Amino acid sequence: MADKVRENQQYLRHKAKYIGLGNPETTREEFATQIHRDTLASIAMHKDILMYNSTATNTHPELYRQSLIKKMVQPLKREGPKTPGSEKS
């Protein structure tokens, strides 16, 4: 019994600390969107990671940051169901 209470308290602490953790009603799409936006925000706000990625894509860091922020606002693109004949060999 004490383990369940402790696990619940730990879950609530983590949920308060990490906003994107979700709850049992969180859908797969909502969770993926949160992870995607957290990743983009992390890249946009960390100077060294931003510089690394902007160098790799050959763009100015501020332009790359702006494009990341624009991507955060847009919803994720959902992939349609794959059909066996649509794959290229």
From TrEMBL:
InterPro entries, per database record: SF3b5/RDS3-10
One Pfam family, short name: SF3b10
GO biological process, one term: mRNA splicing, via spliceosome
GO cellular component terms listed in the entry, alphabetical order: precatalytic spliceosome; U2 snRNP
Transmembrane regions: none
Signal peptide positions (record): none
Listed name of the protein: Splicing factor subunit
Organism expressing this protein natively: Australozyma saopauloensis
